[in-house]
Specification:
The chain is mostly helical and 69 residues long. Helices cover 86% and strands 0% of the residues. The radius of gyration is 17 Å and the shape is elongated.
């Protein structure tokens, strides 16, 4: 059984690494691409998207897939 989990650990590590890099790039790009008076409104969309992804989709999919692992 320990040999089976190794690919998942590598994929989990890569997912976390790329998420950490890409999320910073999104937040850094918003003030560069959006007019100053719309920056706060533009940051609301990624914030809402991340909330839905983490709480809604992430927990739901995790609860569904965990018993099958």
């Amino acid at each position: 059984m320990p040999g089976r989990s190794q690919p998942w650990l590598v994929l989990r590590f890569l997912t976390g690494t790329f998420a950490a890099i890409s999320s910073l790039q999104i937040w850094a790009a918003i003030p560069q691409l959006v007019p100053p008076q719309r920056i706060v409104a533009a940051m609301a969309a990624p914030t809402a998207g991340l909330t839905v992804a983490q709480l809604g989709a992430g927990n739901t999919l995790g609860a569904i897939l965990a018993p099958r692992a």
